[in-house]
Amino acid sequence: MRSGNGVRLALAAAFTVTLGIAGCGGNSPEELVVGEYGSLTGGDADFGLSTKRGVELAMDDLTARSQGKIGGLPVRIVAEDDQGKPEEAATVVQKLVNQDRVLAVIGEVASSRSIAGGPICQAAGVPMISPSSTNPKVTLIGDYIFRMCFIDPFQGTVMAKFAAQNLKLKQVAILKDVKNEYSIGLTEFFTKAFTGLGGTIVGEQAYSSGDQDFRAQLTAIKAKHPEAIYLPGYYTEAGLIARQARELGIKVPILGGDGWESDQLIGIGGDALEGCYYSNHFAVDNPDPRLQGFLKKHRAKYDNQDPNAIVGLAYDAANVLFGAMETLSKQDPEAFKGLSSSKAGSEARKAATKKIRDLIAATKDYAGVTGVITLDENRNATKPAMVLEIKGGKKVYNTTINP
Amino acid sequence: MTEFLQQLVNGVTLGLGYALIALGYTMVYGILRLINFAHGDVYMLGAFFGFYAARLTGAAVEPNPLKAAGILLISMVGCGLVGFLIERFAYKPVRKSSRLAALITAIGVSLLLENGGLLLFGADPKFFPQIVRATNIPLGMGVTISNQQIIILVVSVALMLALRFIVLNTRAGKAMRAVSYSHTAAALMGISVDRIITFTFVLGSMLAAAAGVLVALQNPKIEPYMGIMPGLKAFVAAVLGGIGNIPGAVLGGLVMGIAEVMVVGYLSPTWRDAIAFVLLILILLVRPSGLLGQPPAEKV
Question: What is the ipTM of this complex?
Answer without folding.
Answer: 0.80
